[in-house]
Write a structure and sequence with these properties.
The protein is mainly alpha-helical. 67% of the residues lie in helices and 8% in strands. Pfam families: MarR_2.
Length: 156
């Protein structure tokens, strides 16, 4: 095959546009953009990219270390640390030194953080409902099962 022919690049471009990574990336970008706009509209000074950190801490029954959060979210500790510091500075997270190991920081929600998490939950559910109302119940279940299967296969 002649790899210098323009048609070859067109096919690669089309293949890339239809790739799983590209499609998921487009959807993620749109969802985060819409969610960020909604958060601003609601006067919630949190970015959609920070929501997973808040929600992980919100749903835990005990304080977590930054490493625990990084492990749950499968993100690098440095990135989590920056976001935790920002959320702490904004008054949503409390950071305290671990009594047993002073090298570790324990992270919990402040009352303001709990309030924001509860508000965000209702926004996420409403957003999800607005998107999913365009699908039948069967299509929703199938779509979610496909996403679960993609995650499982990709994780292997």
């Amino acid at each position: 095959m002649n790899t210098t022919h323009p048609k070859f690049f067109l096919n690669i471009k089309e293949d890339m546009k239809n790739s799983l990574q590209f499609k998921l990336g487009v959807v993620t970008k749109i969802v985060f953009k819409k969610m960020n706009a909604q958060l601003v509209q609601e006067g919630i000074p949190v970015l959609a990219e920070q929501l997973p950190i808040l929600m992980v801490v919100y749903f835990q029954e005990h304080a977590m270390t930054q490493q625990d959060i990084a492990n749950v979210l499968q993100k690098d500790k440095a990135g989590i640390q920056r976001s935790v510091q920002t959320l702490h500075k904004d008054g949503f997270l409390k950071i305290e030194s671990d009594i047993e190991d002073k090298r570790k920081n324990l992270v919990t929600l402040t009352p303001s953080g709990k309030f924001v998490c509860e508000r965000i939950q209702s926004l996420v559910i409403a957003f999800d409902n607005r998107v999913m109302e365009h699908f039948t119940e069967e299509e929703r279940k199938t779509f979610m099962s496909y996403l679960d299967r993609v995650a499982a296969v990709a994780e292997k």
